[in-house]
Design a protein that fits this description.
This protein has 12 helices and 8 strands. With 320 residues, it is α/β, with parallel strands linked by helices.
Length: 320
């Protein structure tokens, strides 16, 4: 598995007795760049991946919802993985989203991702069919058994219609290759219980919960907003790890206007992230309007300025 060392200007003191971080601490749910004619743009993908890693992302999650995976072919998913893995090398973990509504298709995607150079798999609960918990557990075990790669479960019942219940997660934690959870269940109590009883690494998948989950033992985040403000998102965790919780809270508050516009304004995160990056989306998604792009730009500039000021304050102050 890939291990990463952040650049010197982004380094941070390790948390004593901190949680396991099999894919790093700060992961970006990366968009999939397309050309103006909606073809896969591999040069742009390599450039974006390198930029994100250079600016504080320990890992990149490809072919997820933010990566518009419902509209990319299996061949495009593999090509994107290969290109990004080659671009970032061993500087960052590359996690492949392989979830689908079909166990057989998910297994095929997982094996293709392993061959393409992925360091891990992100596997979402099968959607639409709403399987019961024994079927959910069997699905994840089948996928985890299909490759030698470590697996991050993706719990997002708001999209899939099915929760990975706490007892199911506890049983799945016994599997040697199930090592992490991307948590979008909005159940901090349940997540905290699992963190306390297992060695699973919990990554926040909802930016507004990045700091709260981290404070109760989470491993970090998988962030869509990190596509456009990677250092600002990382700065919150850096401040917390530097024993400056008040500064972490301030930076978290500063990021909220951008988080809200990008993730809770009615537009999908892929649309808002690509609006700020100047990239097209594929149908059925539509691009953001000029007015929406302008509002997003203002919010982003405010976050970037505040994070830069906060970083200077953090590095110039003696640690308690």
């Amino acid at each position: 598995m890939t291990t990463t060392t952040p650049p010197p200007h982004l380094s941070h003191p390790p948390r004593p007795l901190g949680p396991p971080r099999p894919f790093g601490r700060t992961l970006c749910a990366m968009v999939t760049p397309f050309t103006a004619s909606y073809e896969l743009d591999l040069p742009a993908a390599r450039e974006l991946a390198e930029h994100l890693v250079d600016n504080g992302c320990d890992g990149l999650v490809l072919n997820g919802t933010t990566g518009e995976s419902p509209t990319t072919s299996d061949e495009e998913k593999t090509a994107l993985l290969r290109a990004v893995a080659e671009a970032v090398g061993d500087r960052a973990a590359v996690v492949a989203g392989v979830g689908s509504a079909s166990t057989a298709h998910t297994v095929a995607l997982a094996r293709a991702a392993e061959r393409a150079g992925a360091d891990g798999l992100l596997v979402v609960t099968p959607y639409y069919s709403r399987p019961p918990q024994d079927a959910v557990e069997a699905h994840f075990r089948t996928v985890a058994d299909a490759t030698a790669l470590p697996v991050m479960l993706y719990d997002i019942p708001g999209r899939t219609g099915t929760r990975i219940e706490v007892d199911t997660v506890l049983r799945l934690a016994e599997h040697e290759r199930i090592v992490a959870v991307k948590d979008c269940a909005y159940d901090l109590l349940g997540s905290t219980k699992v963190i306390g009883r297992t060695s699973l690494a919990y990554y926040s998948g909802c930016e507004e919960l990045n700091l709260p989950l981290y404070a109760v033992g989470g491993a970090g985040y998988v962030s869509t907003v990190a596509n456009v403000a990677p250092r600002a998102m990382r700065a919150v965790l850096d401040a917390y790890d530097a024993a400056a919780p008040a500064e972490a809270a301030r930076l978290n508050q500063l990021a909220l206007p951008l988080v809200e516009l990008m993730m809770a304004s009615g537009l999908p995160g892929a649309v808002t992230a690509k609006a700020l990056l100047g990239l097209p989306v594929r149908g059925p998604l539509l691009p953001a309007s000029p007015a929406e792009v302008a509002r997003l730009g203002v919010a982003r500039e405010g976050v970037l300025a505040g994070a830069a000021a906060g970083a200077g304050r953090l590095h110039s102050s003696p640690r308690p």
